[in-house]
Amino acid sequence: MNDDSGSAIPNTFSPPYNLFSVTDRPREPLSSTNELDTLLLPHHSVAVAKELTSVARALVSPRGKGIYATDESPDVIEGMLSAASLNGQENLNEEEKKDRRRKWREAAYGALTNDHISGVILYPETLLDFKLGETLTKKGIILGVRAHGELAPFPASPFEFIVQGLDDLLPKLQAARAAGARFSKWRAPIACTSEALGLPSTVSLEVQAETLAVFASISQQAGLVPIVEPDVEFSADADLYRSVEVHQKAIRMIYTRCLEHGVLLEASLIKPSFPQPGLKHPSRKTITSEEIALATASVIANSVPASVPGVVFLSGGLEPSVAMKYLSGVNALVNKAGPSSPFSRLPPLSFSYGRALQGEAMKHWVRGDTQAMKNAFDNATKGCSDAAKGEY
């Protein structure tokens, strides 16, 4: 999607491009909202709602396009670059590390095409300091920004975490929009154990749902499409049924709170994890991609409102081939679903992958083989695109 609204992008000192803005002009007639396929609430700006819904739909269409997540923090991306290098140990100072991060991002974005990628999530440093957004927008790729801050232990449960960053979020997102961003993403980690071990706690789910809903409303206030990311971890002893239960409970709570905060769901996306057994559960070794697909489709059908225009799954540290098989499996279910099946009514199911897209490419880049890096990106994006159509 080409961003042709550059001349209208406000700077950080201009009035916020606000979905919830109240103007002095009379409210537009209901007929003016017909193209949105929804009845806007009185506090919603029609013009902003039209842009936000258009962006949300463009991120998941046409079928097979998805998002490249490049929002790792500096420490995380440095660890990945060091691990991919030949010697694995480098004595770089902070300026050299920052320069390497910039060069990697430049190379990665330069290698991308918009054949299979609709949007890219950037870390604020990449968008605001390195100013690399234009490399992507010139290719018709939509810019997004990581909104969430760092994690802090939950006071009542040391194995669960609070996500920081809401206090000063609005001006940060307004600055991101001024720099070209049109969507944002907030990740909320959710623990998942067997019922006997008792995680997640109810209070942590409530806090994460409230945090994601507040983020989504602030994002729309700043003129950005919010992507809520409930990341249910799989390191413990939960079986598949327990994972499904936790996914459904968390997602339902998120949307309940989003509606209470006035979030326009038609102008939002969700980035969930795949329900799956934990690494410590015996069934982890025997679970099939077909079982994961059925569980995933059931979670989406039972918990994501029909007004949400798309789902973009996270890979969550899965091996690239596994992440693609899981995505392809759930889309294959959609492909063969009959008209009476709830799976036939699911929104587009696509990807928002990071390591699954860039892992091989990064290995080639640190070795100086830029052509192999580009080939690796082409293969990975094509594989993800095929998976999003159920053809991997």
UniProtKB/TrEMBL annotation:
Keyword 4Fe-4S part of the UniProt annotation: no
User: Which pathway is it part of?
Assistant: Carbohydrate degradation; glycolysis; D-glyceraldehyde 3-phosphate and glycerone phosphate from D-glucose: step 4/4
Any GO MF annotation of the entry: fructose-bisphosphate aldolase activity
Q: Which Gene3D superfamilies match?
A: Aldolase class I
Pfam families reported in the protein's UniProt record: Glycolytic (PF00274)
Q: Which UniProt keywords apply?
A: Glycolysis, Lyase
Q: Which PANTHER family does the protein's record reference?
A: FRUCTOSE-BISPHOSPHATE ALDOLASE (PTHR11627)
Q: Which family does it belong to?
A: Belongs to the class I fructose-bisphosphate aldolase family.
Q: What is this protein called?
A: fructose-bisphosphate aldolase
Q: Which species is this UniProt entry from?
A: Tetrapyrgos nigripes
